[in-house]
Specification:
mainly beta, two-stranded antiparallel ribbon, 4 strands, 0% helix
Length: 59
């Protein structure tokens, strides 16, 4: 999934993962869109942000 990094926060998405390329100060996400998986998760512990890219590792 190709995701564009915006120069402003994506309103409505809170992210506290400061090691992510899309993280912005104030616990905001600058990803244009996010993908959460897997499809058949049964609770929040089963979910994962597939949009995560380690800081400085963007392709």
């Amino acid at each position: 999934m190709s995701v564009r990094k915006m120069d402003k926060p994506n309103e409505g998405i809170k992210c506290i993962v400061s090691t992510c390329e899309y993280y912005m100060n104030g616990d905001h996400c600058a990803a244009e869109k996010v993908e959460i998986e897997p499809r058949n998760a049964s609770d929040s512990e089963d979910t994962d942000c597939a949009t995560f890219i380690p800081k400085d590792k963007m392709y």
